[in-house]
Amino acid sequence: MKDIETLRKSDLVALVGARTNLNRTQASNVVSAVFDVMFEALSEEKRVAITGFGTFDVRASRERTGVKPGTSERITIPARKRVGFKPSSPLKNAVK
Length: 96
Description:
Layout: H1 9-20, H2 24-43, E1 48-50, E2 54-61, E3 64-67, E4 74-77, E5 80-87, H3 89-95
Antiparallel strand pairs: 1-2, 2-5, 3-4
């Protein structure tokens, strides 16, 4: 398996700043604002669709039975909500 490089928020800030000619503070504000808006929308169970990238949404998982590691004890895993992501076709093709 190949090593996976991690792109952190600070890296995104630097890249956005370089591509938009914004200084680091301005780029940081833009990146933070985008993530804040996405966070708020998803917490209100709204979909976030970004053309050419993909769609984030809130999905419900049902209660299910699982096995506790180490003890093999059967446990009930409660129902919960989680964030899902469906990549767009261009993103899928770029990752192939």
